[in-house]
Design goal:
Helices cover 36% and strands 25% of the residues. The protein is α/β, with parallel strands linked by helices and 259 residues long. A hairpin with a 2-residue loop joins strand 1 and strand 2. Helix 3 packs parallel to helix 6, helix 4 crosses helix 6 and helix 6 runs parallel beside helix 7. The longest helix is centred in the last third of the chain and has 16 residues. The mean pLDDT is 90.
Length: 259
């Protein structure tokens, strides 16, 4: 059996709030294969975002290890870790907070395309903007984050992630602030990145998003992964009461997503 692209083993994380110890993640194991899409689902406060930040190397676990292509992130030297991190790109829940307000759209994309020859960065940026529907692309290049709507910032976040051609994209609630009218469009944009070869760890509270997008689902509740498996199995034959409650609470979106 081949090594998964991402593997988290025995991850635990506790936060200290006042005099209390609040466990955010409890002995979590999770894998994402090459080119695979895994949805980590659960309600707000279940520990999903904490586990995502640990997977990205943005936060250290109290216990457990994170492996990227068989190499432990926590055991890497800083230079090696920085290189490995380019293979993983985040799409944050609030894209507005992830852009430098002093950098234009063109500058943000050029920074993501730093490995490309300088003369290729502008045409590739224009192509990326066209792919995510930010048109006219030549005009969008000159705009700044504060001049974009929430939906446009989300599309820009997808374009920036795609610019790096990452092996893994960790998307933390990328549809949470999207209007209902563009949620299906955003899922289709993310599906296009899958076709380009990127694997996904999709963090969402919405079972319908997992149903439409993921190959496998892991259900998280109070820091624990209580159930996991192929999407069809988990969502059609759920074993845990919490999974059944999630399924019953949301509408299906898969009819809005193209093949």
């Amino acid at each position: 059996m081949s090594e998964p692209l991402l593997r988290l083993t025995g991850i635990a994380k506790t936060f200290h709030r006042g005099g209390d110890r609040v466990p955010a993640v409890v002995d979590a194991d999770l894998e994402v294969g090459v080119g695979e899409s895994v949805a980590l689902v659960g309600e707000s406060g279940s520990g999903k975002s904490t586990l995502a930040r640990i997977a990205l190397g943005l936060m250290s676990p109290d216990k457990g290890k994170v492996f990227l292509e068989g190499r432990c992130l926590g055991e890497m030297k800083p230079a090696v870790f920085a290189e490995a991190r380019t293979a993983m790109q985040p799409i944050f829940q609030d894209p507005g907070q992830s852009f430098n307000p002093r950098r234009s759209v063109g500058e943000a994309l050029a920074q993501a395309l730093w490995r490309a020859p300088r003369e290729q960065r502008r045409p590739r940026s224009i192509d990326l903007l066209n792919r995510v529907g930010l048109r006219p692309a030549e005009v969008m290049l000159k705009r700044y984050p504060h001049e974009l709507s929430g939906g446009q910032k989300q599309r820009l976040a997808v374009a920036r992630a795609a610019a790096m051609a990452p092996k893994l994209i960790v998307a933390d609630e990328p549809l949470s602030g999207a209007d209902v009218s563009i949620r299906g469009q955003m899922l289709n944009l993310l599906s296009e990145l899958r076709k380009d070869g990127s694997a996904f760890l999709m963090i969402t509270h919405d079972i319908s998003v997992a149903r439409a997008f993921a190959d496998r689902v892991a259900v998280m509740h109070r820091g624990l992964i209580v159930e996991s498996g192929p999407t069809a199995v988990v969502l059609e034959q759920p074993e845990h009461d919490y999974t059944r409650r999630l399924i019953a609470s949301v509408p299906r979106l898969d009819r809005y997503v193209g093949p």
